[in-house]
Specification:
The complex is a heterodimer of chains A (464) and B (100). With 464 residues, chain A is α/β, with parallel strands linked by helices. Chain A contains 18 helices and eight strands. The chains are: A alpha/beta (464), B mainly alpha (100).
Chain lengths: 464, 100
């Protein structure tokens, strides 16, 4: 296949990828979008086979490896529980990163195959592109592994910080840039390997200081990195599909990071530099004086909700941990039978990744037109009878609106306290991730339901 | 003076960032998780580089150092392609409208 023809096909597959993302603007068009994406991928792979034109025994091996990888991927895709989606995405990011590193390494070892010159005399631009691709890929890989371990709970979600951390990161970052410059001058393979090795280290150092609840930002950021790594390799291979895709994925991840940061009213750098809550010890300690709370049981909650005319459900990460989404749906069905109007309110940073709660509710067969974003629903709390907070905490804390001293001051929160009564399902009065007390617990209109989210919801279903 | 082909590719890159910017802002927030899994899948188009690397050696020796990295990258990317698209599909099937 001629180079011009294959370049045209790569452009087509790039366009199909754009359409795949475009489809996600509404759930109706999204499934079709996904098919566009699959078509784009199939075109890119077939065109590559045709343009390499090597159908010898190597081709058979390529197919075998494709099938092996594909089967593993398909198996994971069908088996993975929806609650594990954040880990899965982090794991997949790490694979893209590592694949980018491997492609860059083989391009460095065998530049002729890619028309990049010969060993020891690789084109300057290609050398910069492939070392950047390899470096970003390596950072994506090791960073995603750390994110995966934290999300999976194998590694503690607590931020790991040490003195001079940011200085070290800065120093290593500058070292990589210097080494790339040096690589261009000497073409030495030792320097190339050093760049890759150091970049793996950067990925680890970059993610360990970031705490568990900041994971939505981390995942989006790594998503973005995997895109930039792909784009870097795309420039090396002079491949349009890869360049377009890299740019799309890179900007997508960047936008998601921005949305997540805005949801917490924190700057991107503030999140990346890690550690939240360390300075808040004092303020939370002084408010520790015993304040009265009202607590109730499932029967009280069932009574309140049955006699309400509208209920808003506020899910959070705790719902995912307790796997309470199905029980919740049953509860809502029972309420609807009693003529209660029910809707769901989702905070942008609820859960561990963008859109986490929406997927879990969709899994439990909650129609997506009953689920609302913060801005859409926040005014409705004032007219609602009961707010049922399940597994969310900081995102409902009214302190964010009233106390300029609070670390979460200015963060957009759901105005749960405006509803006539609030049912707060929680195992204890312990503060949320931000390490601050939730003022909501002590309000007159709040009824605390101390229990596991799933058990409590099931009990409410029974007494309904 | 002739324009370096790099500039053309760079133009595509920059324009794609803009396309990505507008397309992604129009993605509904409830589909942000599928967005991440599908971007994951499409970024595995890096498999084209892996295939080129794996098939580079014309000689009898299929497994050279450089092609081994290509084959490894094929496995990784294939896991991602199939896993990414299928898990996205599985998620999207779950999004249903209210029955009325």
């Amino acid at each position: 296949m001629s180079a011009n023809l294959s370049a045209t096909f790569y452009l087509i597959s790039g366009i199909l990828f754009i359409l795949a993302l475009r489809g996600l603007s509404s759930p109706e068009t999204s499934r079709q979008g996904n098919y566009f994406g699959i078509a784009g991928m199939a075109i890119a792979i077939i065109v590559t086979f045709l343009s390499v034109g090597n159908f010898g025994s190597g081709f058979i091996y390529v197919l075998i490896f494709l099938v092996i990888g594909g089967s593993i991927g398909a198996f994971i895709a069908f088996k993975i529980p929806m609650t594990a989606m954040p880990e899965l995405v982090a794991g997949f990011h790490s694979l893209v990163g590592l694949a980018a590193v491997f492609v860059a390494i083989s391009a460095f070892l065998n530049p002729e195959a890619f028309n990049l010159g010969i060993i020891g005399d690789i084109k300057l631009a290609s050398l910069i592109e492939m070392s950047l691709g390899a470096a970003i890929g390596a950072i994506t890989f090791s960073g995603s592994i750390i994110a995966f371990l934290k999300l999976r709970g194998i590694m503690s979600g607590a931020p790991i910080t040490f003195k001079g951390q940011h200085f070290i990161n800065l120093f290593i970052g500058l070292t990589i840039i210097f080494l790339i410059y040096y690589l261009c001058k000497t073409q030495s393979s030792n320097i190339f390997w050093t760049i890759v090795a150091i970049s793996f280290l950067v990925g680890v150092l970059l993610i360990i200081p970031i705490g568990g609840a900041d994971m939505p930002v981390v995942i989006s950021m790594l998503n973005s990195y995997s895109g930039w790594a792909a784009a870097g390799i795309g420039f090396t291979l002079e491949n349009t599909a890869l360049i377009i895709t890299g740019a799309l994925v890179g900007s997508s991840g960047a936008i998601l990071s921005y949305i997540m940061c805005k949801g917490m009213n924190r700057s991107f750098f503030n999140v990346i530099l890690g550690g939240w809550g360390a300075t808040d010890q004092a303020s939370s300690a002084q408010s520790k004086e015993q304040k009265p709370t009202k607590s109730g049981n499932a029967d009280d909650a069932a009574f309140l909700m049955k006699n309400a005319s509208s209920v808003i459900i506020v899910p959070g990460y705790g719902m995912a941990v307790a796997q309470a989404q199905h029980a919740l749906r049953e509860m809502v069905d029972a309420l609807k039978k009693n003529g209660v109007k029910v809707s769901y309110a989702i905070h942008p940073v609820a859960g561990r990744m963008p859109g986490h709660m929406n997927v879990l509710l969709a899994e439990a067969n909650v129609p997506y037109d009953e689920v609302f974003e913060l801005e859409e629903i926040n005014n409705d709390f004032a007219n609602c009878d009961v707010a049922y907070v399940i597994g969310a905490n900081d995102v409902t804390n009214p302190v964010a609106k009233s106390d300029p001293q609070s670390p979460i001051y200015g963060m957009p929160v759901l105005d749960v306290e405006k509803s006539k009564s609030v049912l707060f399902v929680k195992r204890s009065l312990s503060p949320g991730y931000a390490g601050i007390d939730n003022d909501l617990f002590y309000r007159d209109n709040t009824l605390m339901l101390f229990a596991d989210a799933k058990k409590m919801t099931e009990e409410i279903v029974k007494s309904l | 003076m002739e324009i370096d082909p790099f500039i053309f590719r760079f133009s595509i890159f920059i324009l794609s960032i803009f396309v990505g910017y507008y397309v992604v802002w129009s993605v509904t927030p409830s589909l942000h998780t599928p967005l991440m899994s599908v971007t994951n899948a499409i970024s595995s188009v890096i498999i084209v580089g892996a295939i080129i690397a794996a098939l580079a050696s014309n000689s009898d020796k299929i497994f050279e150092t450089s092609s081994i990295f290509g084959f490894l990258a094929i496995i990784l990317a294939a896991v991602n392609i199939f896993g990414g698209f299928l898990v996205t599909q599985r998620m999207l099937q779950m999004y249903k409208k209210k029955k009325k």
